[in-house]
Every structure is written in structure tokens, then in C-alpha cells.
Design goal:
The structure holds two protein chains of two kinds. Chain A is of the alpha+beta class. In chain A, 36% of the residues lie in helices and 33% in strands. In chain A, a hairpin with a 6-residue loop joins strand 2 and strand 3. The longest helix of chain A is centred in the C-terminal third of the chain and has 13 residues. Chain B is of the alpha/beta class. Classes of the chains: A alpha+beta, B alpha/beta.
Chain lengths: 86, 560
Amino acid sequence: MQKKWIKLKNSACLHARPAVKLVQASNVYDSDIFLSLEQGGARANAKSMTSILSLGAAQVTELLIETEGSDEVEALDAVIDVICSL
Amino acid sequence: MKMLKGTCGVSGVGCGKVVRIMNIQKSIERNVIKPEEINSEINRFHDAMSKTSHELKHIEDDLSVAAGKDKAAIITAQYLIASDPEIIQEVEKTIERKLINAEAAVAEVFEKQASLVGSFPDEYLAARSIDFRDVADRLLHSFSRSNEYNVLIDSPSIILAHDLSPSQTAGFNPECVKGIVLSGGGLTSHTVILARSLGIPVVLAVGEELDTFINGQRICLDAEKGMVYVDPDREVIADLEQKRITIEKEKDEDSKLSCEPTKTLDGEQVEVYANIGSVNDAEDAINAGADGIGLFRTENLFYNSSEPPTEEEQFEVYKKILKMFVGKDVLIRTLDIGGDKQLSYLEMKNEQNPFLGVRGIRFSLKYPQLLKTQIRALYRASVHGKLGVIFPMISVLEEFKKVQILASEVQAELHSDGIAYDPDMALGVMIETPSAAITADRMAQVCSFFSLGTNDLLQYTLAVDRLNDEVSNLYQPECTALARLIAITVDAAKSAGISVGVCGEIAGDPRMVPLLLGLGLRKLSVAAPQVSLIKKTIRGIILDEALSIAEALLLSQKDK
């Protein structure tokens, strides 16, 4: 399992467009990918539009990304890329 | 002829036959099912879901072609909802546990989701509840054979409705749908946005009278005036046709202009570049018609991670942007950190005066390995386009000379490693301290170009922190001191035969553009959304007038 806390320079809002990018990037990988806004908080499945939108992530400055599976390292990298380019 | 008045949603004119779309909420029966029916209900649900996601995929593809991928994002989001493993599972569970029919389970699960999202205080997020309801409506229609959710329109038509869902609007073919008239007008922003991107005129808030019209009636609209004409007279049709031709012509001219060089009324050419911070921004810059990149801030590459980006990672990003702007200038600024900007993986001391402390090039020279890696990545990328590198916060010549030494070391290394690079890659100085501006003549002897960073230049010149409410009223870009520093910089560049541009916020302010041209600047770099406005502003400027504006300010004839 891979885990990374990332801090964003500009706060991001996970509404339709960013969520689309996240889901599309995550779907490429076999690993399970989860996002949470705080340690121990609700975990959103990054391959699920519904799940990401349900986080209600309006002004995100920090995010925990967890990946687990055969390509977890690459998956983590890709998701970080997407989030940093939001 | 009958006339109705509403308000303009999307301007334009159109004529066609009435097609009424009535979004009557499908009444959902809630039936109790037997345990042995669970599987067949789940199968019915899967069939409807896959029909829905296919429809949405189709709409998304068409919309991407007609309006661009970016505009299609809302429909992409709906498609992803309709193929979302989590919501599919939730509906299956609801059928199984509550022993209810598929339609009832769909209505329940989607409505719960829509209310949850709709309850978020952020309005962008809350607006997404519309998408869950839109997908649910489409899905519920998919259970029955007759599907009124997709109306097939194959001849010139005007759509009449109370409201349209995003996916319905997105599904319209602008070749056939010549206009949209809505009786309401409150919660229709998504319809307006999608219609605009498809170029379909919209009239809003026409009122309940809309219900009296019947399919097939001839109808015309002039959205700018908010007018709807039913069974229009010949003169009205002729007038509107004339207007349509004029609008088309203007559109053609606008799109032609966006590819043509930007010139003042007296023919002086000005380049309008874009300031960007990511590859995404670069795409926006291309769409906005930018003549190049005047400032790529590389800080984003260095944040958001527990370690600095590798040479390879940086190289890929720089190369990508250069390939997007073939034959055009791309100016990339090296890491500009310090002041208010910190990096988590480097220990940065708390300074009493961070804006007068270790920032910009001072920081980079303190961590030369970081700078060297970046310069190496830039040199490697330089073979892929017209690349210039800007070094931030140079205040004395000595700093730039150190940068040059680093650059020649990098060149030597690349040479011995047998890696391709452009030895003539331009190295430029960001003029953002008064001392750099005042000694610009000396700077110009050693560097290849200047870029004026007017935000910092102004704050250092006036000794005003513009984020400090107590003094921010003193932060006035239209001041003699800044104008004189810009003039000194431009003159120095001209006598040395090097280029000079401006990338501060001042360049994106249409009121300041005449002054900047008057001061001799011909390269303005602005945020991508500003590009077309600034180009338009330049096309209305007479250089002589701009010169006298600059002269008056330089001579301090104005009290500023």
C-alpha cells in the first residue's frame, strides 16, 4: 500500500471538471485508489464520480492519497500529477 | 403574427418549427418484489444503466466535436456517474435489501445522492445535484421502450420548454436546433452555458403563454432583444435573415482576426503572450490565441511533493509546452521561491523581512544544485522550440554572472554526456527590482532579453506591500516612478538590441495598455483569459495618443 499526504499551493475544489480528470486518470490503473481530506476521515473511491463529489471537497489544501494493488506506485504518481495540475 | 417578450440568454437569431419538450416528471411506481425477482430487477437496472451511459457517451462525443472537450466536461461527469461502480452497487443493494423494483431503487438512491451534494455550501459543488437528477431522469426513461427524453430533431426547429436538463441541451445538434425558448429562467444557467458553447440562441422567462403553442408552428426569435415571433410576417423574417447574415460575418471576422497579428490602428504590431503555471494553462493559452508564452512560472512543479522534481520530470513538462507552441516564443522562469512562498522539503529560515531576504535568484544561488538541475532540463528542452529562460529577482549584475557560469557548466556537462541542447538558448533577466531597472544598460550588455515583472517592481519602488490594507491604497501602477523605470529599461534594451516584454498584472489591465505601448513596449504577457481582451484593446489604440499619455506621465504633468 502506498500513502501520501500532499499539500496544495492553491486550494482546489473537486467539482465536476476536476472529478472527471481524477476518475479518468484513476480508471487506467488496476489498483484501488482512495482520497481523504483528513486522517481517518471519509475515504472516497477515486474511480467513482459519486464518491468524489460526495466528499464535498470545496477548498482543499491537503489531501491523503492511498493506493493499493499491483500498480500502486504508478497509480499514486498519476493521481498526484492530476491533483497538482488542477 | 404574435409577439412575446422574454430576456436574452444567448444572443443570436433563429427561425424554425416549434418543437415542444415537456419534461414531465415520470411517476415512479414503487412495487414490492419477491426475493426470487431480485436478479431480474437487477438485470433490468443494468440494461437501463448501460443504455443511459451509451446515450451520454454519444452526446459527450458529439459535444466534444462541436464545442471542445472542456465544454463537454459536464456531460463527461454525467457519463461517469452513469457508469460509476459505486452507485451501481448502491442501487443493487437497495433492490436486494428493500425488495423493491429497480425504478424505485434508482429514484431513491439518486435522489439521496442529489440531496447530499445539493446540501454543500459551495455552489459549484451543490450545482452538481442537477447532474444526479438529470442522469436519474434519463435512466428512468430508459426503462420504458418509448423514450421521450431524447427528442429526435432533424429539421430547423425552435425548442420550447419549461426547463431543459444539461444532457438534453448538450444533445441538440446546432445544425437543426436554431433556438431555444424557455418559459422559466431561474435555474437554467447550465442550459445557457451549454447552448452558448453550441452557438444556439436562447430566450428566457417568456412565461406560461408558451404552453399555448403547438408543434409545427413557425416561430422566429431575436434573442438579443428577447423577442419571440410566432407565425412571423414576411418583413420580420427578412429582417432577421439580414441580422443573421451580419452576425455570421462579424463572427467570421473575429475568428480571422484572432489568427492575424495584433496591430494598433496605425499599424504597429504588438505580441500578446500568456502567463501560465501549468500545461493545462498552456492549453487555455492556445485556445485564447496567445502569440507565445511570456511567463511560465515553474513553482507548481516544485510544490505538492516531498522532494524536488527530477530533471526528467521537468524536461518532459518543458518539452510538452514547447511542442504546443511551435515557432513561438516560450519564456520559462526558473524557480522563484522565498518571500511568501516556501518549499516543504527545504529548510527555510524565518526572516524578518522575507521580501528583502532570500528569494528568487538569491534562493537559487544558495541551492545551486536545484537551479543546475532546472537549467539542465531547460537546455535539454531547448532543442524542441524557441525557448528563453528568465531569472527572477536579479538585483545586481554579479548574480546574473553567477547564473551564466552555472549555465556554461551545464552546457559542458551536456556536451560531454553527448546530450542535445541549444547553446544559444536565450538567458534573460527579470527586471523587478529598482536597482535592476536603473542599471538596465549594464544588464543589457550581458543578457539576451528583459522581462519586466511590474508587480514586484512597483512594490519595491513605492515601498508598499500591496497586501497590507493599511497602505494598499498607495499601490498605484499608474505612477511616474514606475513609468520612468519602465522607460529606462526599454531604452536600455533598445540600445543594446535585445528584446523586452512585460508580464506583470499591469499588462492585463486594458486601461494601462496605452501607457505601456507609449513607453515603447511591444510584448505584453497576460493571463490566458485576458488575451483576447488585450488584443482587442490594442486594435483600438492610436500610437501617437499612447505616446502622449506616456510622455505626460513621465514628465509628471499628471499628479501621480
